[in-house]
Amino acid sequence: MRGVTAVLVFLLLASTLRAEPLRIATFNTELSRKGPGLLLRDLRRDNAQVAAVVDTIRRAEADILAVQSLDWDHDQETLRAFQALLSEAGMTYPHAFALKPNAGIASGLDLDGDQRLGEPEDAWGWGRFTGQSGVALLSRYPILADRARSFTGLLWQDLPDHRMPRTQDGGPFPDADVAALLRLSSTNHWIVPVRLPDGTLLQVMSFHAAPPVFDGPEDRNGRRNADEILLWLHLLDGSLGPAPAPPFVLLGDANNDPHRGEGHKDAITRLLRDPRLQDPLPNDANAASHTVTWKSTGPMRVDYVLPSAGLQVTASGILRSDGSRHGLVWVDIRR
Fold it and tell me: How far apart are the C-alpha atoms of 193 and 286, rounded to whole Å?
C-alpha cells in the first residue's frame, strides 16, 4: 500500500505542477532614446520613466516577457543594465534574447523615394541610429538561442502574396532596383524556443510592426505593416519554412487596431480570427480593452498576446503604466 500511496502522491504532485499557470506578457516600454547610448545612460541614473517601467514589469510578474522600444547595442550593455534594474526590483530574468534589429541600419539607398539619402526613413527599418527601438525577450526559463529562427532579413518581395507598394505608373516603389532589396521586418520577427519546467518547448513568436502611417499615397508603411502581420500566417502555413510546432504564443506590438485608426484592417482581423490562435481579449482594471492611448487617435488596441489553440487560457489583463502610453498585456496559460 505504501508503494501505491507514494505513486498517487507523486501523480497528484505532478498534476499540480502541470496545472501551475504560465504568465506571458508583452510591453512596449517606449524607453527608446534619440541617440546611441542615451538609454544606457538613463538606466544607470535616477530616471522617472525608467523607474515607472520597471515598476510595471515588477507588478506584472510575467514568466516570459517581450519588450519593445529597448535600444539595442552590439555588446548588449543596455539589455544587461535593464535586467539588473529589474533584478534589483525583485523581478529576476536570468535569460534574455535580443538580435540586431533592422531599425536604424543604414541602407545607403533612397528607400522612400524623396531624393534624399541618410534619413531615418532610409534605414532598413525606421531609426536614427542602429538598434533604435529594438526588441528583447526576457524569461525566467532557459532560452534555446541556438535554435531560434529569425526572419528579420527576409526580403519583402519573398513574402507570398505581398503588398509591396507601387508607383503611380504601376511600377515597383520607389524603383525596381531598390524594391528588390527591401526587407520586410521593420525591427525583428523571431521564433524563440523556451524550455518550460516540465521540459516542454514553448515557441515564442515576437515582433514589433511598423506604424501604418507617415508615408505618401503609395501607402508604403500601411502595406508594410499589413505584411509584417501576415508573415505569421504564412509561417503557420509552412510557406516560409517549417511551421512552428505547438505549443506556441505570438506576442508583440502589431501597430494595428482591428476597428480604429489607419492600417489594413483585414490583416489584423485575419490574424485574430485564425483558428490556430486564440485571442483572450484582455481588459484592464476598468474593463477597458485598449492597449495604448495616443493624443492624435485616442485609445486603440495594438499590443497582443495570442496563445496557440491547444493552450488553456486561465486569465488575462492589461496593466497601465506611468512610464509608457502602452499598457503591459499579459495572459496566463497552461497545457
Answer: 34
Average pLDDT of the chain to the nearest whole number: 94
Residue 203 reports pLDDT greater than 70 = yes
Give the model's pLDDT for residue 17.
38
Cell (9 digits) for 77: 550593455
d(Cα 221, Cα 212) in Å, to the nearest integer? 5
**Mean pLDDT, residues 251-273:** 97
Grid coordinates belonging to 234: 504564412
Q: Are the CB atoms for 122 and 110 separated by under 8 Å?
A: yes
Question: Mean pLDDT over residues 160-180, rounded?
Answer: 96
Can you give the pLDDT at residue 183? 98
DSSP 7: H
Dist. CA 9–CA 15, nearest whole Å: 10
Out of 3.30.420.270, 3.30.200.20, 3.60.10.10, 3.50.50.60, select the CATH number for domain 21-334: 3.60.10.10
Q: Is the pLDDT of residue 19 over 80?
A: no
Q: In whole angstroms, what is the distance from residue 133 CA to residue 93 CA?
A: 20
Backbone angles phi, psi at 5, to 5 degrees: -60, -45
Ranges of each domain in the chain: 21-334
CB 20 within 8 A of CB 332: no
- Alpha-carbon span 177 to 321, nearest angstrom: 44
Kindly state the cell numbers that stand for 118. Answer: 541618410
Average pLDDT over residues 12-34: 78
